[in-house]
What we know:
Elements (H helix, E strand, L loop, with lengths): L5 H4 L9 H4 L2 H22 L1 H10 L20 H6 L15 E4 L9 E4 L1 H17 L7 E4 L7 H13 L2 E3 L6 H11 L3 E4 L1 H13 L11 E5 L5 H11 L2 E8 L4 E7 L7 E3 L4 E6 L18 E7 L10 E7 L1 E2 L9 E2 L4 E2 L4 E3 L2 E3 L1 H8 L5 E10 L8 E8 L5 H18 L5 E5 L14 E3 L5
Parallel strand pairs: 3-4, 3-5, 5-6, 6-7, 18-21, 19-20
Antiparallel strand pairs: 1-2, 7-8, 8-9, 10-11, 11-12, 12-15, 13-14, 16-17, 18-19
Helix pairs in contact: 3-4, 6-7, 8-9, 9-10, 11-12
Bound molecules: 5'-O-[hydroxy(phenylacetyl)phosphoryl]adenosine (DLL).
The site of 5'-O-[hydroxy(phenylacetyl)phosphoryl]adenosine has 21 residues, from helix 7, strand 7, strand 8 and strand 12.
Amino acid sequence: MTTPTAESALATGDAVLDREETISRDELEALQLSRLQHTVAYAYDRVPLYKRKFDEAGVHPTDLRELSDLGKFPFTTKEDLRLEYPFGMFAVPQKEIARIHASSGTTGRATVVGYTKQDLADWAKLVARSLRASGVRPGMKVHNAYGYGLFTGGLGAHAGAEALGCTVIPISGGQTERQIQLIQDFEPDAILATPTYLLTIADAMIKQGIDPASTSLKYAVLGAEPWTEEMRHELEVTMNIKACDIYGLSEVMGPGVAGEAVETQDGSHIWEDHFRPEIIDAFNPAVGVDSVLGDGEHGELVFTSLTKEALPIIRYRTKDLTRLLPGTARPAHRRMGRITGRSDDMIILRGVNLFPSQIEEIALRIPELSPHFQLELTRPEGQRMDQLTVRIERRDAVSIESSATAAKVLQQQIKIHVGSSCTVDVVDPGSLERSNGKLRRIYDLRPKA
Ligand code: DLL
């Protein structure tokens, strides 16, 4: 493993970095250990769920003597947060909670998270760090199209852009026509949105006769849903921008757990001065120091917070599938590979595992096909086999005949690269539902067991 020299890696032009961005790996790990020891003791003392879980597992905060000892501690899951609804996981009295966010909770209860004033300051600092890594600079105008409200995207990105010293335009998601008007009138330098919503905006511009490559936008910081290198290419070319990734989840903080550097565009750096990541076997998780997978190995990403006050989180299972890679632009902070998908979003089709991002990757290499697609799963009457239909829009100028050929190519490529047989249905441009934020790709119409 080669780590770039500090001089070459940290050549970020005019940006002034946080000290923690430039420290050595050794210094960072020493910081992690002391913060981790504090966090497990703090969680054990203040949150009954952690005391119960640690006691049941026969571990005590004093067992954490080196970083790898973290593997002995039990995992925390979304289900734990649901059972402790609404405030059972909070480690401080309610009057010290400065803000609450929550997940939408499509199944069952919402997951509620809280922040102290210090947590909000740390969060803003890390989002600012992520935006700066992605090319955004103080004084720039930032169009924030992440949804405002209980979702952490809007307010999280907003506070980070303000902390960086930007002029924030808090437009939120939706009302695409209005967004386009304001992009033209206010001339922002950067846009913050989900990748599929940026695609919606670009698409709507083209419909209005506006060239998306002609706007003032130079940078996009995109996250909250999986996206591929092919989608990056699509957006960068269509909009004449540099597009970088930002990652996060509400249970761990919100956006800004990790951010990508514009000079390398090689995956998001996890801000390891605030979060300790681990990779575990997603489908066979075990507790123990030996059950943690090594860097480079694929599995489920697990996080432990190192500085959070209101909601310390120990070994939270994200369900996000990825791997850890050595730091590059920020050498001490490991990167995460692109998220291939979530373990609970994986389609198992006749024994073959499949993620929407695989379809995105393949489809975008076929020039006649657009990035607008849906996956429909059915089980036809009287049959035991599941059926996958990929419904995808052809690009504007493409004829029906050439889209029929493209459909065959897509079907063959999916068979070759994924191993699944499917039906491909190429539909008219504009006929599939557009994203307003996190896009739903999978429509599972199979009868419930
Ligand atoms: O989506 C936080 C966020 C907002 C991140 C804005 C980035 C930008 P949740 O709603 O709790 O929080 O959803 C978290 O979204 O576990 C991943 O499955 C997915 N996700 C977030 N960022 C990325 C990304 C926000 N860059 C869940 N790439 C996570 C892939 C992402 N998936």
